[in-house]
Specification:
381 residues, alpha/beta, Peroxisomal Thiolase, Chain A, domain 1, 9-stranded mixed sheet, 20% strand, Thiolase family protein, Thiolase, Thiolase-like, Thiolase_C_2
Length: 381
């Protein structure tokens, strides 16, 4: 089976862009990706697009051109972007197409996400009791994890400090001012143990990736950034996920465990072979837990990893090199694709002040969302 390659990338800056709709931000990203690939819109044979709150992605054809293209909308929570990419990859692997698009965008209102219990098969009382408030759930989840594995609040702060420091060098990031560790720790609590600097914010932005068969990529004369794996999985029995009404006495794995293992199997490599990683970090503790869930370390080892700087740009495994969700914010439809965009930038050597040293040749991305879905991709140059 021929490899799928990423031949063009585009991004609309994340954050707040008054007067520009989510769809317009997606169109901006698509046009940038087309220019990067050196092709015109009519060359695109199919598209998958994800958005949670900013309209149907297929309507962007009104701005890009009415070519009759097959354009399928994807809505899969925080994994919408990763799911769009996995779907686009499968379309090319099937042999039916050799040039396609994965695009995601969103434009969320200020304030917390307003998820409804009925959307997740839960009764109204679950929301009335406040259990749909994600900041509370994630705070409870990390508190349990910290107790079980000896993680300190200082380590949460180090994750956030690294994010804002990395984002200084990422033009697409929202929060591009460094914040020192003590300021992060002393900031007002949102949900104990998380201070305001330890959560990401709903945001705006758009990302587009153009995928091609290896044959087509060679015809275009593009560097071969190969999509070696794209896996999306749902939760297994006994997992403990956002919007879960309870926790099982007998604990199971997680959607991330499954997606990660499948991605490594598909790519034919292991965690030790990854040079740079983008891990879901909607809150500081998520990056810590996901380091272990994706197989990069054991539960509890993160305390030492962060203290020794192993996840820094020049560390053993640079993580969230553009600041991740903490610094970029999270427009749901675009967030997972932003991670892949960043990995393409890193593998091309175009990261400037945030560039991972040593000529990285492999890159990993992981996105997680409600009610327990994960998508993982592995790129190779």
């Amino acid at each position: 089976m021929s490899d799928v390659c990423i031949v063009g990338v585009g991004i609309h800056p994340f954050g707040r862009t008054d007067g520009v709709s989510g769809i317009e931000q997606g169109v901006f990203a698509v046009r940038q990706a087309l220019g990067d690939a050196g092709i015109d819109w009519p060359a695109i044979q199919f598209a998958y697009g994800g958005s949670d709150a900013a309209g149907n992605p297929d309507t962007m054809v009104e701005r890009l051109g009415l070519t009759g293209i097959q354009f399928i909308n994807v809505k899969n929570g925080c994994a919408a972007g990763g799911s769009s990419l996995a779907s686009a990859s499968m379309a090319i692997q099937s042999g039916q197409f050799d040039l396609g698009l994965a695009v995601g965008f969103d434009k969320h209102p200020r304030g917390a996400f307003n998820a409804l219990p009925s959307e997740y098969g839960l009764p109204d009382w679950y929301g009335e009791a406040g259990y749909m408030i994600t900041t509370q759930f994630f705070a409870a989840k990390i508190t349990r994890y910290m107790h079980e594995h000896g993680i300190l609040q200082t380590t949460l702060g180090r994750v956030a400090e690294k994010a804002f420091r990395n984002a200084v060098h990422a033009p697409h990031a929202w929060r591009r001012e460094p914040v020192d560790l003590q300021t992060i720790l002393d900031a007002p609590l949102v949900s104990d143990p998380y201070t305001k600097f330890m959560f990401c914010s709903p945001a705006e932005g758009g990302v587009a990736l153009i995928l091609a068969s290896e044959k087509k990529a060679r015809e275009l004369g593009k560097p071969l950034i190969r999509l070696k794996a794209a896996a999306m999985r749902t939760r297994p029995p006994g997992s403990f996920e956002v919007f879960a009404p309870s926790i099982d006495v007998t604990r199971g794995g997680s959607a991330t465990n499954i997606a990660s293992a499948d991605a490594f199997r598909l790519a034919g490599i292991g965690p030790e072979d990854i040079a740079v990683a983008q891990l879901q970090d909607t809150e500081a503790g998520a990056e810590i837990m996901h380091l272990a869930e994706n197989g990069f370390c054991r539960d509890g080892e993160q305390e030492q990893w962060l203290a020794e700087g192993r996840t820094e740009i020049g560390g053993a495994l640079p993580v969230n090199t553009d600041g991740g969700c903490l610094a970029c914010g999270e427009p749901i439809g675009a967030s997972g694709l932003r991670q892949v965009y960043e990995n393409v930038v890193q593998l091309r050597g175009d990261g400037a002040g945030r560039q991972v040293p040593g000529d990285p040749k492999t890159a990993y991305s992981h996105v997680y969302g409600a009610p327990g879905v994960s998508a993982v991709t592995i790129l190779e140059r």
